[in-house]
Design a protein that fits this description.
Helix content: 25-40%
Bound molecules: adenosine-5'-triphosphate, magnesium ion
Shape: globular
Catalytic activity: ATP + protein L-histidine = ADP + protein N-phospho-L-histidine
Pfam family, one: HATPase_c
Structural class: alpha+beta
CATH architecture: 2-Layer Sandwich
GO molecular function: protein histidine kinase activity
Organism: Streptomyces haneummycinicus
Keywords: Kinase, Transferase, Two-component regulatory system
Distance between the termini: 20 Å
Radius of gyration: 16 Å
Number of strands: 5
């Protein structure tokens, strides 16, 4: 997971510029988890992209904190940003397809919809957030073990 996060961060390093600091808080005692790396790379990219946009919408400065931890029988990957935050009136809609607060031509509003499908449907995980101005955290929780083989979900691959 940490290799995957590092490679996504490296891929996106051009986006951060001088004004965004990246802090990694990895729990190196975590075990490997079963996952689809290409799809998770897409999730990390979407979440980091949103975090950077929220910080650039403020004064342009900020800190992106990528944290991993164990939470009971799940792996937590958290992306924290010091950006504008998600206003209460839009909190129920951020995962809706095509919901965006970005100017026309800048966002399609699909990033979180796609991320939801990858995390929840494909990985049987959880995607959630906590947000206040200056402190927004998107959290992905992934099961530490693969789902049972008799799992009947149509999304399991
Ligand atoms: N970290 C964040 N801080 C503040 N607002 C956020 C954050 N992440 C998401 N949002 C809000 O949720 C909306 C939807 O996010 P989503 O990633 O689905 O679409 P988008 O970023 O607008 O467009 P796209 O991802 O398709 O380029 C954003 O337009 C923004 O209003
Ligand atoms: Mg987005």
């Amino acid at each position: 997971m940490h290799e995957l996060l590092d490679s996504t961060l490296l891929m996106l390093s051009g986006k951060f510029g001088q004004r965004i600091t990246v802090v990694k808080e990895y729990d190196h005692t975590l075990p490997r988890v079963p996952a689809y790396p290409a799809e998770l790379n897409q999730v990390w990219t979407n979440l980091i992209d949103n975090a950077v946009a929220a910080m650039q919408a403020g004064d342009g400065k900020g800190t992106l904190t990528v944290r991993t931890a164990r939470e009971n029988d799940r792996l937590l990957v958290e992306f924290g940003d010091t950006g504008t935050g998600i206003p209460p009136e839009v909190r129920d809609r951020v995962f809706d397809p095509f919901f965006t607060t970005k100017p026309v031509g800048e966002g399609t509003g699909l990033g979180l919809d796609i991320s939801w499908r990858i995390v929840v449907n494909k990985h049987h995980g959880t995607l959630r957030f906590d947000s206040e101005p200056g402190d927004t955290r998107f959290q992905v929780l992934l099961p530490l073990t693969a789902p049972a083989p008799d799992d009947t979900s149509e999304e399991s691959a």
